[in-house]
Amino acid sequence: MSLRWRLALVSGVAAAISVVTVMVVAYFVACEQFESTYGPTMLEQVPELQDTLGWPFVAVTVGGLVLAALLGWFTAHTALRPVSELTTAAHRIADTRDLAHRMDVSRGDELGSLAESFNTMLDALERSAIAQRRLVTDASHELRTPLTAVRTNVELLLRSENLSLQDREELSTAAIGGLAELTTLLSDLMELTRAGEPEILAEEVRLDALVREQVDRVAARWPLMSFETSLTPTTVRGVSDRLSRALANILDNAAKYSPHAANVEVRLKRGVLTVRDHGSGIPPGDLPYVFERFYRAAAARPKPGSGLGLAIVKQIVESHGGTVSAAPAPGEGAIIRLALPVS
After folding, report:
1. Is residue 327 a contact partner of residue 259, using CB atoms and an 8 Å limit?
2. Cβ atoms within 10 A of the Cβ of 246, count?
3. 47-96 and 110-159 helices cross at what angle (nearest 10)?
4. Neighbours of 339 (CB within 10 A)
5. pTM beyond 0.70, yes or no
6. Maximum distance among all alpha carbons in the chain?
7. SS3 breakdown of the chain: % helix, strand, coil, rounded to 5?
8. For residues 317 and 213, what is the distance between their CA atoms, to the nearest angstrom?
9. Separation CA 343–CA 340 (nearest Å)
10. Residues forming beta bridges with residue 325, ordered by sequence position
11. H, E, C per residue of 273-317
12. Is the distance from CB of 210 to CB of 271 less than 8 angstroms?
């Protein structure tokens, strides 16, 4: 039996019991009033009077029962109408993939709260779908250039039999470089798909030790750079490998956009990490966009990279309950500030 029929049955039975109770009480009250007026033996002496008094009560009772059944059905139908609309909306969204549909939340009861929760879920799903479409579109655009370059170089190697050894080496090096760029880009894209990690993977992490480890690794990749560090012992709760990825991206960025043999200053205190470089800095017009996917400032476009490094940093930091920001450094360069909740 459906919920609608069960509600109708319960409402109808309750109304019917009320009608029968009222009519029975009214009948006996009427009989007592009649006896008190005409004497206790009048009804027994004139049987027709019993019929005269009884049949109207029976008719009203039957009519009341019918009305109770109709009232029960109407009550159930009215109460469950928002649920029916919610079901229809869910089927419509499943069939059409239209996440723009929203429920009416004008009701102030529990069903209105249910509709509001349903709309909140749709908002989240719509934002996620938009982000996924944008990621696919941007990724397709970014993959096209290195794929075309690799294909061109490989085709030249296969078709040109008279190439000199030097030309072959240059084309091979270019193809390998393109493949390395593709590998990095795909790795970054896979990182962006990790919106969060299961809670079971989170643990107490010494952030200062992670920073020191990543500074040493980045310094090995940029041997001409100098890294000046001041690290206060700091413990945070998080996923170690993801935090390491965020730190590596920030430090690599600072080294990449600094002059040769420049200094990068790394400070960690009370869960706040600041990384300052002495490069050309970030133009004010680019500051609002540096953490967006695939965004690259004009000065950064000639350098290798996909524009995903800082977007990955932002995603990782926010998934750990922290914040990250960029600002021009006094004089020259830029400062990246990362703040995480301290355990």
Report:
1. no
2. 28
3. 20
4. 16
5. no
6. 134
7. 65, 10, 25
8. 18
9. 9
10. 337
11. EEEECCCCCCCCCCHHHCCCCCCCCHHHCCCCCCCCHHHHHHHHH
12. no
Tokens of 172: 């091979």
**Token pair recorded at residue 133:** 């479409």
The identity of residue 158, as a single letter, is L
List all residues 6 or more positions away from 16 whose beta carbon is below 8 Å from its beta carbon: 64, 65, 68, 69
213, 177 in Cβ contact below 8 A?
no
Paired residues of 96 in beta bridges:
none
Q: Are 265 and 337 in contact (CB under 8 A)?
A: no
Residue 182: other Cβ atoms inside 10 A = 18
Whole-angstrom CA distances from 156 to 145, 146, 153, 163, 286 are 17, 15, 5, 9, 39
Q: Each residue's pLDDT tens digit in the chain (343 positions)?
A: 555 556 556 666 666 676 667 666 666 666 666 556 655 554 454 455 455 555 565 666 666 666 766 766 676 667 667 777 777 777 887 777 777 777 766 666 677 777 788 888 888 888 777 777 776 776 676 677 677 878 887 888 777 777 787 887 888 888 887 787 777 777 777 776 665 555 557 889 999 999 999 999 999 888 889 999 999 999 999 988 889 989 998 998 898 888 887 899 999 999 999 999 988 888 888 888 888 877 766 565 556 566 778 888 898 898 899 999 999 988 888 999 999 999 8
Structure tokens belonging to residue 109: 């009861």
Beta strand segments in 34-136, E: none
Look at residues 287, 284, 270 and name the one whose alpha carbon lies nearest to residue 338. 270
What the block records as the tokens of 305 is 């990279």
